[in-house]
UniProtKB/TrEMBL annotation:
Name of the protein described by the UniProt record: Glycosyltransferase family 4 protein
Entries under CDD domains matching the protein: GT4_ExpE7-like
Domain Glycosyltransferase subfamily 4-like N-terminal: 17-218
Keyword Lipoprotein found: no
InterPro entries: Glyco_trans_4-like_N, Glycosyltransferase_grp1
Amino acid sequence: MSTRILVVAHNHPDFHPGGTEIFAHDLFGAYKRAGAEALFVGATNRIHREPRPGTSFQAVGDAGDEVVLWAGHFDRFMMSQTDLYGVIQDLKELLCEFRPDIVHIHHMLLVGAEFPALVRRILPDALIVMTLHDYYPICAHDGLMVKTGAYERCGKADPSRCNGCFPDIAPDRFLLRELNIKTHMRAVDRFISPSQFLKDRYVGWGIDEDRISVVRNGRPAAHPVPARKSADGQRNVFGYFGNLNPWKGAPVLLKACRYLMEAEIDFELRIHGGAPFQSENFTDELEALLKDTEGCVTWHGAYGRGDVAALMAGVDWAVLPSIWWENAPLVIQEAQLHGRPMIVSGIGGMAEMVTDEETGLHVRPNDPFDLARIMRRCILEDRLWDRLARNIAPPPDIDDVAAAHLELFGDLREAAAAETAA
């Protein structure tokens, strides 16, 4: 009898193609190819799909093993699912009907911090694992670990510091939030972190180091596109991939481009990605910077997953100047898959995934002068691109990553069985 795996994410990539959703869905497919019976549940809300009467669950296309859970009633601060008579009851019925051997949670947004405890109560013998993709349980500022009102990274969350970011919320509320989330996370048998940096952050927050395993994310196998053909041999076309928001560093990149233009450096930047759900202040700043860099910068808008290879074919370098501690950005693995050296902020998981001066280049975060300096070097330094590109290894194959997960699950289940027998 095949292993049953319930994969839970905070959306479906058809509605919100973020890195977590894409990876969770790719891993779900790899589980099935490995012989598991898997069901994918993506929690969503009115932003992406309207509720439908009768049940919290809605089908996704014709697939019988992929559904979305409409979970619009959610306490974002406490990360708590408040719909006790709708969503919670429907989740209970799902668990009782599908009866998974393994529940793999990729996020607690919308589904609720209580979900692991609910699984443990309904299915006491099920293995519960949770991949930590970001800092939402730690940080109430959308899991960014960046202070509100500024672009200063925050090294630690505690009630008094959090109250400094949110003066209208008393410190004891932050303490209650932390205790509530940690209490429900005790039901998780093992946490998985795609980076050592993220693991260290959660260990510092109070999760036992032995409960977190580092397993790198992976990508589906694909043929890499060839290097861009250049008549003059210059490697001066840069690409930005992903949604545009203040934390991904798009304004920093555009300011760096403005400095290059002032220095009369010949280059091109192609921006691929949309800017959904952003503030008017941000979009106004973006429009002004795009106007200032017109002629060298082109914003091509949102793209689909199937477009990545063709878009990568048109650039020499991929740039990710994020100002927050990214964990395992999808764009880095996409660039590595196609042999494109990356310019990244030298912090967090980005610094782990891109080795400075070996497979890419690091820049100081939120520093357009330093980014412009590095971009200028990329254009003018002879053979730099060739040296870095030669060292780039493709990311782990998603089927190998699934095999590593399944091996870990098997070890955990054997250990639990041995403990019960003893």
